[in-house]
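Let's study a protein:

===
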Amino acid sequence: MRSTKSYIYSLCVIAPLVVCVTAHAGAQDDAKGFVEGSSLSLLNRLVYEQLDYQRGNTTKTVAGGARSDQAKEGAYGLMLNYSSGYTRGVVGFGFDAHAFGGVNLGSDADSVRSNPRYIAKENKDLKDSFGRAGAALKLRISSTELKLGEMRTKNPIFHSSDTRLLPETNRGWQITSTDIPSLSLQAGRFTKWTDRNARKNGNELLANYSGVNADSFSFAGGSWITPIKGLSISSYLGQYEDAWNTWYLGSFYKHALADKQSISLSLNLYRNTDTGKALAGKVDNTTWSLMASYAFGPHKLGLGYQKVDGDTPFDYVNRGSIWLENAMQLSDFNAPNEASWQLKYDIDLGQLVIPGLSAGVAYTRGSGIDYKRAGNIYNGFLGTGSAGGKHWERDVLVRYTVQDGQAKGLALELRWGMHRANQAQGELNVNQVRLLAEMPMKIF
């Protein structure tokens, strides 16, 4: 007999198809045509990062040999994205395509980590340039869309990261539907993955912390804008084949106060349990975060708490599939049994200095880490393997986006981070500086 979870999962997959048949009006009614509705854009991105390791910590470089207490990378990326319109009629057909390329800007094998963050490598050699391309067919009925091929995804359990030089992509199918007012549904199954600095598409799916590969990741769920003003709820079910099942519950609430003030609450909860062959070992993990924020004028203060209840780290597939509030620049604060606090402050300097300028600072501290029962599969994060792990991180972000003129849209960003840990925590002590410049261009 099938489990209740299986029935719910099947319902979530079928629901968008049922909706598209019963809906009377939708986005397809306004289809402009394959060519008439098409668009082409280009994003230029320049990144430089320097990592300085502290307290005797070092990193292995691509060249091998002696370890280094510093890692540096610089790269330039180009992201060309094409999206066709939909053909007219009850069923609309379309086509999306992308081409990504990266260029090494002087980084050498003696100064780049053995697992580069931005640049592609081949054995002990760095590639001077690398690139990849992909495409997806799309079909739309009403406001329900099916995509099949290479694409980016966006949801809390299978999210394509775009925090480095080039974005992640995945190969498979995905259905999205917004035919029901205030409800957005989504389901998909993906069998291949392309990392941010990969030289080709179609690699095996990979778990971030256990490092295990699996044949597929399937998911279904959605988000609901409730009748309560300012409150939205989302929930997803997913399965990393023969590794773990995952369930996500998220909620966001914002309440406006007088004089340009507001308070907000953000909840993210994940529940992972092993399944099938249990490739990642015995997984029984509940991890959640809660962030409370108070905004007044250009200022915003936030206080967050995050807890991992389980003997293994909170693990996930795809680099961006962690929507926990304390997942920071240098650490996710997701170790076994870890509890962490975060204090953050953001300011919109556009109201005080120059339009388009913003800044933020954050301090996060975690403790109670215990890897003793995690299993050897997590050796890369064990530290001494003892209890009592603790660490902290400080982060600063400054970003400026040009608001008008010929350079409109040009964004300049500076990130600075500092991470410190004891031996039982397992991650390295490091200072980070990252500079980014990006310029979007709409070709047509």
Q: What stands out?
A: Helices lie at 4-22. The chain has one domain: 39-442. The chain is about 5% helix and 50% strand.
